[in-house]
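#struct-help
A.M.: can someone run this one for me? Single chain, 428 residues.
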Amino acid sequence: MPSQPQPQPAGSRTYPQTRRTVASRDRSKMNYRRDAAHDLLDEAYHCHLGFTVDGEPRILPTLHVRVGETLYLHGSTGSRPLLAARGDGGLPVCVAVTQLDGLIYGRSHFHHSANYRSLVAHGTAHLVTDEAEKRHVLTALVEKVGRGRSADSRPPSRRELAKTAVLALPLSEVSLRTRTGNAHDEPDDYDLPHWAGVLPLRTVAGRPEPDAGVTAPLPAYLRPERSPWHTPAPMAGIHVRLAPLAESHVDALYAASRDPEVWPHLSVAQPADPAGMAGIVRTALDAHWRGERVPWVQLDATTGEVVGTTSYYEIDPEHRRVAIGHTWLGRRWWRTGVNTEAKLLLLTRAFDELGAERVVWHTDIRNERSQRAIERLGATREAVLRRHRIRPDGSWRDTVQYVMLADEWSKAQVRLRERLRAAVPAGQ
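D.P.: on it. C-alpha cells below:
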C-alpha cells in the first residue's frame, strides 16, 4: 500500500512528500509548493484521469476545476470511472496535467527535450451527490472559461444535472515537475555547426466564431486586452452611429451594398451573395483580432439601418498616427451627411481622445469623387504611391495619400460642423 500523506501544519505552503510523489531521478525538477500546483491547475483547461477497471489501466481526458484544495472532474453518469466511484470506498485515481512551454533543440539527438510544467495528483475520488455542491462546481467550471459566463448562460436543468456527474479528489498527494531553460548539451558538442536553442510554445486564443443566428455582442471576457487605439468604441451623431462590426451585420451589409456603384474603387470585389459579404466581414474581424485594424459598422442614427462600414488601420500608437479607410456607404446614404459626420466622429476620436498627430487616407487615383470628399474634410494631398496595391481585377493601383495633422484639426472640425449643420433638414 502507498504511504499515506502526513498531516501538514495549518497553512502549510507545500504538499507532503510520499512514496508516490518523491522522484526517483532529477529531483531538482520537483516542486511541492501549493501555489505552483494551484497555478497550473487553474491555467490548464483539461487533465487526464487514470484509474483501473477489472485490473486493466484506463486513462480518460476530462475537464477539471479546482475549488480550494479539491480538484473536481467532470463526466457523464454512465462513464466507467463515475460508475466505479459510486461505492463507499470511492475510486483510486491518478490525475495528470501538463503544459508544454517549449521545444528544446540540442546539438545532439540525446539532448533534444522540452520545457514543461507537469502535475500529478494521487488519491481517492468520490462522486459528488449533494445537489448544491454539484451546482456550485458546474458553475465554477463555466466561470473558468470566462469570468461572468455563468450569468451569461442558462444554468443546468434538473434533467441535465442528473445526466452530469462530478468526481471530487482532495489535493493531498501532489507533485509538480518542471523543466525550463535552454539546451543542456555536452561541452564537447558546443563547437558542432548545428543550431541549438528553444522554440517557445504557448496557447493563444483565436478570434471567437459565433454560432449561427447569434446576434448578441461579443462578451467582454472574450475580448482581448486592447489599447484605446485598437478599441472600436461606439460613437454617435445626428446622422450616423458607429458600432463595433460583428458577424451579425452580414445580411444587412449585403442588402445595403447591392448597388454596383458602391464597389468600383474598393480593395475588394462586390460580393455576389451574403456568403461573400461574410468573407469580407471575417477578414476585417481577423485583422482586428491581430491588432491591424479597428472596424466599425455605420448605422443610420434615425432608423438604425446598417448603411456601411469604416475602419482605422495602419495603427501606430508609438508614433501617434492612424489611417481611416475600408469605408463604403450604401448608395441611398450618399450626400446625406452620414459620411461627413462619420469622419468627424473618427477624427475627433483620433485627435482629441487618442492624441494622434497624423491621420491618413488612401484612395485610388482613379476615384476622383473620393479625392474631392477627402479634400473637403480639410486633408492635404501628400503623395502618390505608385503601384501601391493590386485591384480586385488584378491591375495595379496607384494610391493618392492624404494627411491631416493635429495642428490642422481645429480649423478642419469647424468646417466639418458647418457642413453638417447645413445638411440637417429644417425643423430638426
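A.M.: thanks! The mean pLDDT is 92.
D.P.: also worth noting: The longest helix spans residues 406-423.
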